[in-house]
Design goal:
The protein is of the alpha+beta class. The protein contains 5 helices and 6 strands.
Length: about 150
């Protein structure tokens, strides 16, 4: 059973077949699916599941704090079941792929006192951006040799 399903059971969340399949689709590491992707994968397992049921279930999971809603660069919202494990995101600027990353240290400590303007900090959301291996251009001729020598 997935971590998300276990958490939901522990909360006494009523587990209908539709809710279960949505939670199962969201199981795994580095899962950041759009609502349409969740619906598509859920429909493969449970063909009668409606798009509205998926959207409603995702909304409930976000409201419960069991799933994070991740928005990047005006793209479709993505849903991250890794809500109970502190992490940041690494986003491909070209294709939008998202990976969970766990940098050392606390990002709250990275903001100097002079830049806090009297705020009491509660959390920080850091997003690292770049190109994933699929989108990054290959090395320019000769760069591979230079990289190997370093």
């Amino acid at each position: 059973m997935s971590d998300l399903l276990e958490r939901l059971r522990g909360r006494g969340w009523r587990m209908t077949s539709q809710r279960r399949v949505v939670a199962e689709v969201l199981s795994g590491d580095h899962v950041h699916l759009t609502a349409d992707e969740v619906h598509g994968r859920a429909a493969e397992r449970l063909p009668e599941i409606s798009r509205a049921t998926v959207y409603n279930t995702l909304g409930e999971l976000v409201s419960l704090g069991e799933v994070l809603e991740v928005s990047t660069d005006g793209r479709a919202k993505r849903y991250d079941p890794n809500a109970h494990h502190p992490h940041q995101h690494l986003v491909c600027s070209h294709c939008g792929t998202i990976r969970d990353v766990h940098p050392q240290g606390d990002p709250l400590d990275d903001l100097p006192a002079g830049e806090r303007f009297g705020f009491t900090l509660a959390r920080a959301e850091v997003t690292y951006r770049g190109l994933c291996p699929s989108c990054a251009p290959g090395p320019v001729a000769g760069e591979e040799d230079v990289a190997r020598r370093k």
